[in-house]
Design goal:
Helix content: 25-40%
Strand order of the largest sheet: 3-2-1-4-5-6-7
Shape: globular
Bound molecules: glycinamide ribonucleotide
CATH superfamily of the largest domain: Formyl transferase, N-terminal domain
CATH topology of the largest domain: Rossmann fold
Strand content: 15-25%
């Protein structure tokens, strides 16, 4: 049987990467991580991958003259591994056209807000400062905009009066760790249909 091959793109701590690894190791998610790619050399996520004997690559932004050149290197690497799905997990670099068009409908991201509210950086801080009573996390397909692609799954999290950015981030992150493997599993099992920007899922 063909394995469903993932690439996970990371920049930092890698707790979402860990959640995907754990889900595979518990045999809840029938997939394998072929490669973990980082744009930061010392990302803790790379350590986590190595501990599970997953191949890692650091693509150094300093070695590429511009973002187009960087994207080409990234695209070539992803092609080399015949990847079925690319998962951005705390990847803090904007993907360029070449990557997005080459892997159309095959790139997903997790974001710590209920999109379309609070895209971009510091989503949890934006939510606190806006005074929303609920926030959450979103898994979505990646398109050419920032956190603007079709929404696959969301989880709602309450925001309490006593919350600050840290406590809200922690509550959202716990949910991210369930939501991301669940979304990957649904895609792997062909339970996600995309019509324009509307995602429907044939799960009961
Ligand atoms: C997660 O909260 C993820 O949703 C967020 O970065 C964190 C990465 O944590 N991503 C974004 O804000 C993307 N716009 P992790 O490295 O521990 O998975």
């Amino acid at each position: 049987m063909n394995t469903f091959k993932l690439a996970v793109l990371v920049s930092g701590r890698g707790s979402n990467l860990q959640a995907i690894i754990d889900s595979i190791e518990r045999e809840e998610l029938d997939a394998s991580i072929s490669i973990v790619i980082s744009n930061t050399r010392d990302a803790m996520a790379l350590q986590r991958a190595k501990e599970h004997e997953i191949k890692t690559i650091f693509i150094d932004p300093a070695k590429h003259i511009d973002s187009k050149d960087y994207d080409k290197a990234l695209t070539d690497k992803l092609k080399e591994y015949s990847i079925d799905l690319i998962c951005l997990a705390g990847y803090m670099r904007i993907l360029g056209e070449e990557v997005i068009q080459t892997f159309e409908k095959k790139i997903i991201n997790i974001h710590p807000s209920l999109l379309p509210a609070f895209p971009g950086l510091n989503a949890q801080k934006q939510a606190i400062e806006h005074g929303v009573k609920f926030s959450g996390c979103t898994v979505h397909f990646v398109d050419l905009g920032v956190d603007s692609g079709p929404i696959i799954l969301q989880t709602v999290v309450p925001v309490y009066d006593k919350d600050d950015e840290k406590s809200l981030s922690k509550r959202i992150l716990e949910q991210e760790h369930h939501l991301y493997p669940k979304a990957i599993k649904m895609i792997k099992e062909s339970k996600v249909n995309l019509n324009g920007r509307i995602v429907t899922s044939n799960t009961v």
